[in-house]
Amino acid sequence: MKVKKRTVWFLTVVSLAAVISVFYIFEDNTPNILTIFSDETIDETDILGVNQNLTQPVNSESDLFQEVRLELANKRSQQKEQLTQKIAADEFTAEEKNEAFNEMDELIKLESSEAMLEMLIKSIGYSDALVRIEGDKVAVKVMSDEVSGKLADEILYVVRSEFKDYVNVSVEFEPFN
């Protein structure tokens, strides 16, 4: 099991490096990445509207959410592996291989949509969010001690604004432990 995780992570890192390399090859006006992250530029950067004395690091991601994400990632990784084997096998017709390729494409789009929605929900002020999409149903869990209709409406708006078609959204608030 550890070998599969390492392989997936390795392939992810290599893919990311390839995409970034292609981007920088075709982009003429790229700044020097080392300059952006130097100590001098960090010290010169001022965040407007934030009192530096009041800022504290926050690490409140739910272990429960991480476990669910890991289980789902393992399940989807197995699905992708099966689909990849089907695509590579000689015993399947071109139509079956095409269908497997389309399934893999949909799985990747689903993962991307879930990750994007989680990021958007976190951007409106929640420390952690878990989004699961199944067909036209979207289940959202957020870490928050405060529960209100207004907060749920904000989440509903963010989720529905990302879909062209109507989706049934359920929002659940998970208190901090």
Give structural notes.
The chain is mainly alpha-helical. 59% of the residues lie in helices and 11% in strands. The protein is built from 6 helices and 3 strands, in the order H-H-H-H-H-E-E-H-E. Strand 1 (129-134) and strand 2 (137-143) form a beta hairpin. Helix 4 packs antiparallel against helix 5. The longest helix is centred in the middle third of the chain and has 30 residues, at 94-123.
Q: Nutshell version of this structure?
A:
The chain is mainly alpha-helical and 177 residues long. It is built from 6 helices and 3 strands, in the order H-H-H-H-H-E-E-H-E.
Features:
single chain, mainly alpha, 177 residues, 6 helices, 3 strands
Which strands sit side by side, in order, in the main sheet?
A: 1-2-3
**Strand and helix order:** HHHHHEEHE
- Poorly predicted runs are 54-60
Number of helices: 6
**How many strands?**
3
Shape: globular
The structure class reads mainly alpha
The helix content is 55-70%
For the largest beta-sheet, the strand count, sense and barrel status come to: 3 strands, mixed
Beta-strand level of the residues, as a percent range?
5-15%
Terminal CA distance = 30 Å
Radius of gyration: 21 Å
